[in-house]
């Protein structure tokens, strides 16, 4: 069921619409600024996938979401996040979360910190998490609680900020086993090449697999990250590095070769350096503008 451009007149109307179908498995809601819903209650014995979007900023606070769906396997939050309370009463044992939201900052630092921390706490039992850069960058500003149950993480982050941010993220995931990183260029952030010498717990005890997709940079920040994992991850078995040369930058001679040589000393079961192959457009000359719709 897709609810978009549908004005929900009240909390009760929204709850009744969602719960009226005993076989509902997929639900996508795009909230509107005209909605009158204050407390969105998602109660369904059959729901397996739920996508919640707000496609435009909305600064009213005090709204909440409560999810009671014992078969829910996947939850996606998109665009703007403005909920003061977000509670998951029940879900499936195998539960994946995808967060791609921009928090609407307020002048009240403590209130904003509480909103972000409460959201993370609601996902403290999640084992599989995907998080975008626009969400992850708030960790730069606000400390978050640890995700002790998280074993699989897919994250995008700014390449320039990654030497500082990556150890913070890893420290928040003490039992992480599988990591996929998408590194992006985001020029407002100052370049930093120093990685913390204080090692996150997951490097010492659990991390087994790392995959990175990254632009090539002349200063080879991406290779420093790869070496960081090789040197410090005690249980690392697999490291895959996908290099995107579309930026036009190149490594200095011999830098990549030295990394390959170093990988042999680390005795990894699998180490690969692969090019990122651009996906050709099926419609040459045609420019597709992404819709705000689902």
Automatic annotation (TrEMBL):
Q: Which residues form the signal peptide?
A: none
Write down what this protein is called. FBD domain-containing protein
Organism of origin is Brassica oleracea
PANTHER family this protein is in?
F-BOX/RNI SUPERFAMILY PROTEIN-RELATED, FBD DOMAIN-CONTAINING PROTEIN
Name the Pfam families on file.
FBD, LRR_At5g56370
Query: What InterPro entries does this protein's entry cite?
Result: FBD, FBL13/AtMIF1-like, LRR_dom_sf, LRR_FXL15/At3g58940/PEG3-like
Give residue ranges for domain FBD: 201-274
């Amino acid at each position: 069921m897709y609810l978009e451009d549908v004005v929900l007149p009240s909390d009760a109307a929204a709850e009744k619409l969602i719960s009226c179908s005993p076989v509902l498995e997929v639900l996508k809601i795009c909230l509107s600024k005209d909605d009158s819903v204050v407390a969105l209650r998602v109660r369904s014995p059959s729901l397996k996938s739920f996508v919640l979007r707000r496609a435009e900023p909305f600064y009213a606070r005090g709204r909440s979401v409560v999810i009671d769906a014992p078969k829910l396997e996947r939850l996606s939050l998109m665009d703007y996040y403005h909920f003061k309370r977000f509670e998951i009463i029940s879900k499936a044992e195998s539960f994946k979360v995808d967060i791609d939201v921009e928090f609407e900052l307020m002048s009240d630092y403590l209130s904003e910190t509480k909103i972000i921390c409460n959201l993370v706490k609601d996902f403290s039992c999640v084992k599989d998490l995907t998080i975008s850069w626009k969400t992850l960058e708030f960790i730069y500003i606000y400390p978050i609680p640890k995700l002790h149950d998280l074993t699989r993480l897919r994250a995008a982050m700014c390449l320039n900020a990654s030497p500082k941010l990556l150890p913070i993220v890893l420290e928040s995931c003490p039992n992480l086993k599988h990591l996929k990183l998408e590194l992006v260029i985001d020029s407002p952030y100052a370049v930093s090449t120093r990685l913390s010498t204080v090692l996150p717990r997951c490097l010492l005890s659990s991390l087994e697999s790392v995959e990175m997709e990254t632009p090539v940079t002349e200063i080879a920040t991406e290779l420093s990250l790869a070496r960081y994992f090789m040197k410090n991850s005690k249980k690392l078995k697999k490291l895959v590095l996908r290099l995107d040369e579309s930026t036009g930058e190149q490594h200095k001679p011999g830098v990549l070769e030295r990394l390959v040589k170093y990988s042999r000393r680390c005795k990894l079961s699998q180490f690969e350096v692969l090019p990122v192959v651009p996906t050709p457009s099926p419609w040459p000359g045609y420019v597709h503008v992404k819709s705000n719709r689902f």
